[in-house]
Design brief:
Blueprint: E1 2-6, E2 8-11, E3 17-23, E4 26-31, E5 36-40, H1 44-52, H2 56-64, E6 70-73, E7 76-80, H3 89-123
Parallel strand pairs: 1-7
Antiparallel strand pairs: 2-3, 3-4, 4-5, 5-6
Length: 125
């Protein structure tokens, strides 16, 4: 059996999906019936959104399947590339704060785009 190394591997709560994994811009979805699928050229943001979605199955059907090529894998198992190293409380807090900053910067970019759009409409007058 071939092993595929992934950067992240998560068991999810879903009626059909057992776990999802991500590595090298590939999303791996293992269904509870044992089927394993690889979706190619997946953006990390889409993997994160899938992992955080309220319904993994609905997100998979509406956002992943229509937008990414996929193939069924046979005789393959998923394995984390390297086990996560223990983190100190300070390292964990740094990761949380960095994520919060990324989210805030993204929100600011969206607001700036909206301002630019509205200013463009005002200048058209």
């Amino acid at each position: 059996m071939k092993k595929v190394l992934v950067n992240d591997l998560a068991k999810v709560e879903s009626s059909n999906v057992n776990l999802i994994g991500f590595g090298e811009n590939k999303l791996y979805v293992q269904f509870k019936n044992g089927g394993l699928y690889q979706y190619n050229n997946v953006m990390a943001e889409d993997y994160d959104r899938l992992k955080l979605s309220k319904s993994v199955g609905k997100f998979l059907n509406s956002e992943i399947k229509p937008n990414y090529e996929f193939e069924k894998l046979e005789d393959v198992t998923l394995e984390l590339e390297k086990p996560a190293e223990p983190q100190t409380p300070a390292e964990q807090e740094i990761l949380i704060l960095r994520k919060q900053l990324e989210d805030m910067f993204q929100a600011l970019r969206i607001k700036q785009e909206r301002i630019n759009e509205l200013e463009g409409k005002l200048n058209e007058r």
